# Entry
Amino acid sequence: MSKQQKFRIAMVSDFFYPKLGGVETHIFQLSLCLIEQGHKVIVITHGYGDRQGVRYMTNGLKIYYCPVTVFFDQATWPSKFGFFPLFRKIILREQIEIVHAHQATSVLGLESILHARTMGLRAIYTDHSLFGFNDAATIQLNKILKCYFSDIDAAIAVSHVD
# Structure
């Protein structure tokens, strides 16, 4: 019986505790399950009010609440490369091997995919809300996502479009 390889994983999304919802719960539960299997997992998200810096949750889950500007509905303002220096510092400090971004409307998550690939890391994306092609906004979002997903290692969809 071979020993399972252990990874160092960063979950990245604009949506995490203290905000409550499906994406937040999914990231939290997945992180705890991966930690239970022996992987090292951290979460990178934006600050929520006075919740800034590094915090710890259950089972040693380390959360980085980063000082980035929130734009709309808890999604951060697109900066393209403005987040890269802080992201790089966290990734190097934690010796991360895999970046796992969550949610199509998470700018922080999408930018982390680009930064991960720039640094030669594996990138995984989980989509929690698939968007159809029934209006101009969702068509545009799908075109934007196509650019970000041109170089990911794996994609996971936890919902479907009717």
Observations:
- The chain has a mean pLDDT of 86.
- The first strand starts at residue 8 and ends at 12.
- Residues 126 and 156 are 5 Å apart (CA to CA).
- The chain has four helices and nine strands.
